[in-house]
Specification:
about 250 residues; alpha/beta; 8-stranded parallel β-barrel; about 40% helix; about 15% strand; binds 2-phosphoglycolic acid
Amino acid sequence: MQPHRYIIANWKMHGTAHRVREAVYALDNATRLLSGAVSIILALPFPYLHIAAVARSHGSRIQLAAQDVSAHAEGAYTGEVSATMLRDVGAEFVVVGHSERRQHHAETDTLVATKATAALGAGLTPIICVGETLEQYKAKQTIAVLGQQMQALQRCELSQCLLAYEPIWAIGSGLTPNRDEIAAATAFLHTPTQEGRDSAKAVVYGGSVNPSNAAEILATSNVSGALIGSASLNEASLITMVQIAAKG
Ligand code: PGA
């Protein structure tokens, strides 16, 4: 049986309503009849989620992700968006603990775990990002760093979560770890955090994935998909990567 793949497009803080409409239209047209076990997930800024939600309600296979979620269920948290609200507007996934949130919004491993739990509670699938800095990579601390980040997720029902191995130094840099390094890190992420606990539903790789390296990365052991930033902003590139994933 062909393995299931995930192509997750992370648009970060890019786009306009017009651009999102164009991209959703093109992606929907190119993928509606595509066979192959591939989930196509578009992680959009909050104000644009409804655009993809409309397409989804008309039979598009594009699924929606938010790029962040509040750790709180409801209340006086100005500017926050709850997991229930995201579910309410049609999101099925949410990216949690992206390194840009850890870096610019001081998100800790504990907060990331709380957000993942909040997401699960509302029926969203968290896509939890983990990964090491360049210094840690050079010091060969990748597995130790991942171990620490995973430790905080001990209480999460990982069988309901996707994990994204995203080396921070590979994001937006054009650099990627080699296949053996990706395979080793993702094999580690497949290991349950504790004896008796389930492992993640799937592990994807993110960091400078593009149409030229997607086939090789997707063929790496333990890798069930890709979380793609800049190369996903171009719909032709994104469609190419979805087609590569659909080939298995
Ligand atoms: P990139 O971003 O593909 O532009 O490297 C990946 C990410 O930040 O998830």
